[in-house]
Design brief:
heterodimer; A: 256 residues; alpha/beta; seven-stranded parallel sheet; three-stranded antiparallel sheet; 14 strands; globular; B: 325 residues; Rossmann fold; five-stranded parallel sheet; 8 helices; elongated; binds flavin-adenine dinucleotide
């Protein structure tokens, strides 16, 4: 079984994010970069399937030079090889264009299952996996919390509001990973050593035959809407505070 | 030229999801500014009878395709039918819900329609005839205005944020041929395992009572359940509580959990880490109950109580009961 896992390098969520004055992106100085947490679930699931069924796990990432670290992290976890798509034209490109580049790279390699995260925690677009599936002309199952391979198809669990669906999909297929799918492993020391020697192909848009044509952009970045300062409810006893709170919720906020 | 503000309605087994009305209302507002029509797409099985209801919120036209293959929802069937219709009719704006179904469907449509989309928006406006979609970015640390340069201009709307406003019209119901080819459907729902708790899902709840590490253990949630029962609320949790195994994964609110937008969010024993705030920051009213006066949650709360939650919450339940009696 040949598996591809798409990984995006994102700022660590603890990072204090500062938007550039022109709103074109964020100040990168001082940011620690990590693998998108949802992509860790994808890589882990890919490795588990490889352990069970054999085959290769290929990691694909679109990003600048620093994205190579994230590819190496996945290789250190146990993936076999990487494709690094590095092109300034794809910096901050929208989901359609990122997916176009990923699709062009993945078309050239055998793939039964392609893992993506359900979303990248920096820009939260939550689109790339499905758009990629469309480019490849294959089905998608999104927000997956459990996956079983049965012959030439997979069965997955997808939670929705108030229910869980058991869905069957033919292969090849794009699966987007949701928390709960598994517990990602850490890279071991020998794994990290081995990763250094694993092959990583570097490509650019032209090399993949992709022309970047923007579909969406951030026109402006604004501070979040100001919230009026909160009220700390004073009182002697918990009961007194609770009474005051209930009253405020009813009479002032009118939410109960 | 592309014209019209369209939405994709969401229903299950003939019952609308609330987001459908929120979408129509949001579309109506935009269409009035543009002087254009509101179109709604409704797919399902045995749903023709409910099509007209969208007129109540201001839909001018409802495009309906009734087919057994549309229930339960699958990406393949819905995306193919909608893409076909949208390509024929060429609306200028297409809105979906950022719900479980809407997220899956909208992102596939981005691919099929070769366009762009602003995800999980909290506000929309029109400037120079173009849609400007406002969405929280970087875990809610700022907001961005997204402009889509292709057509249709797509946006998915965060549930519970856009009010559903009645604006009655007599909607024209237009049946269309979805052109479904069963051979192209590659996915199938084998089973729908319903959640039997009878509680509204967190993403759709009007009131949420949420507990974190301060609850001390799974037993601690008893008092939150009691408060939730009185308020008709759903109980949520921080990641610390979920990771400790006190609450199921589906209850997690935050960056790696659910994004919620209730009218009232009561955070008990939750410190207010940025990743938690990312999931509930757009709630209309936030209450924090925490014994640490320096907990960051107070900076985001509309009302705060600094005290032991095990003493405050049962009292609050009593007081609310009295008020609602
Ligand atoms: C603040 C901000 C807001 C933005 N908002 C939007 C928006 O609303 N709409 C829009 O179209 N674009 C937006 N963009 C552009 C955005 O940067 C993206 O590159 C692109 O849209 C993909 O979205 P995402 O990174 O959120 O990925 P998602 O679609 O959320 O990612 C899902 C999965 O796809 C895979 N994936 C995503 N990116 C890569 C990659 N570079 N390499 C390998 N795999 C990847 C990963 O598996 C990931 O888990 C925004 C950019 C910024 C800086
Ligand atoms: C990549 C990433 C993703 C994450 N995603 C999420 C996410 O989706 N959701 C999420 O919630 N977190 C997420 N986190 C974790 C987040 O950083 C915090 O660790 C977590 O939110 C803390 O949970 P907490 O507030 O319950 O616990 P704590 O931070 O430990 O806070 C407990 C609070 O309870 C108070 N308390 C204790 N006892 C009492 C009492 N008797 N009465 C009143 N108050 C009391 C304390 O004063 C304290 O403020 C993520 C982290 C990372 C790195």
């Amino acid at each position: 079984m040949n598996i591809v896992a798409c990984v995006k390098q994102v700022p660590d969520t603890e990072a204090a994010i500062k938007v550039k004055p022109d709103g074109s992106g964020i100040e990168e100085a001082g940011i620690k970069w990590v693998m998108n947490p949802y992509d860790e679930f994808g890589v882990e699931e890919a490795l588990k399937l490889k352990e069970k069924f054999g085959g290769d796990v290929t990691i694909v990432s679109v990003g600048p030079a620093r994205a190579l670290e994230t590819i190496r992290t996945a290789l250190a976890m146990g993936a076999d090889k990487g494709i690094h798509i590095n092109d300034p034209a794809l910096e901050g490109a929208d989901a359609y264009n990122i997916a176009a580049a990923l699709a062009a790279a993945i078309k050239g390699i055998p793939h039964d299952i392609i893992f993506c995260g359900q979303r990248a925690i920096d820009d939260d677009a939550g689109q790339v996996g499905s758009v990629l599936a469309e480019f490849l002309g294959i089905p998608q199952v999104t927000f997956v919390t459990k996956l079983d391979v049965e012959g030439a198809s997979i069965k997955v669990i997808r939670p929705i509001e108030g229910a869980q669906l058991l869905i069957q999909s033919s292969l090849p297929c794009v699966v987007t990973a949701q928390k709960g799918l598994n517990e990602p492993r850490y890279a071991s020391l020998p794994g990290i050593m081995k990763a250094k020697k694993k092959p990583v192909d570097v490509k650019d848009a032209a090399g993949l035959g992709v022309t970047v044509a923007p579909k969406a952009k951030i026109a402006k970045t604004l501070p979040p809407p100001a919230r009026p300062p909160g009220k700390i409810i004073c009182g002697e006893e918990p009961a007194e505070k609770a009474r005051e709170l209930a009253k405020l919720l009813r009479e002032e906020a009118k939410v109960i | 030229m592309a014209k019209g503000v369209w939405i994709v309605a969401e229903q299950r087994y003939g019952a609308y999801r609330k987001i459908s009305f929120e979408l129509v209302s949001a579309a109506r507002k935009l269409a009035d500014q543009l002087g254009e029509e509101v179109g709604a797409i409704l797919l399902g099985s045995g749903i023709e009878g409910i099509a007209g209801e969208l007129g109540k919120y201001g839909a001018d036209k409802v495009y309906v395709a009734d087919n057994a293959l549309f229930e339960p929802y699958t990406t393949d069937a819905h995306a193919a039918a909608i893409a076909k219709l949208v390509k024929e009719q060429n609306p200028s704006i297409l809105l979906l819900g950022a719900s479980a179904q809407g997220k899956d469907l909208s992102s596939r449509l981005v691919g099929k329609l070769a366009t762009g989309m602003a995800t999980d928006c909290v506000d929309l406006k029109i400037a120079d005839g173009k849609l400007i979609s406002i969405r929280p970015m970087y875990a809610g640390k700022c907001n961005g205005e997204i402009v889509v340069s292709a057509f249709p201009q797509m946006a998915s709307l965060r549930p519970n944020v856009f009010p559903a406003v009645e604006k009655p019209k007599t909607a024209e119901v237009v049946k269309f041929d979805p052109g479904l080819d069963p051979g192209q459907l590659k996915t199938k729902v084998l089973e729908v395992q319903k959640d039997t708790s009878g509680k509204v899902d967190l993403t759709e709840a009007n009131v949420i009572v949420s507990g974190g590490r301060g609850m001390k253990g799974p037993e601690g949630y008893g008092i939150l359940e009691e408060l939730a029962d009185v308020l008709g609320a759903t109980v949520g949790a921080s990641r610390a509580a979920v990771d400790a195994g006190w609450r199921p994964q589906k209850d997690q609110v935050g960056q790696t959990g659910k994004v919620v937008s209730p009218n009232l969010y009561i955070a008990c024993g939750i410190s207010g880490a940025i990743q938690h705030l990312a999931g509930m920051g757009s709630s209309k009213y936030i209450v924090a109950i925490n014994k640490d006066p320096d907990a960051p949650i107070f900076a985001r709360a509309d009302y705060g109580i600094v005290d032991d939650l095990f003493k405050v919450v049962p009292e609050l339940t009593k007081e609310v009961k009295k008020l609602l009696a």
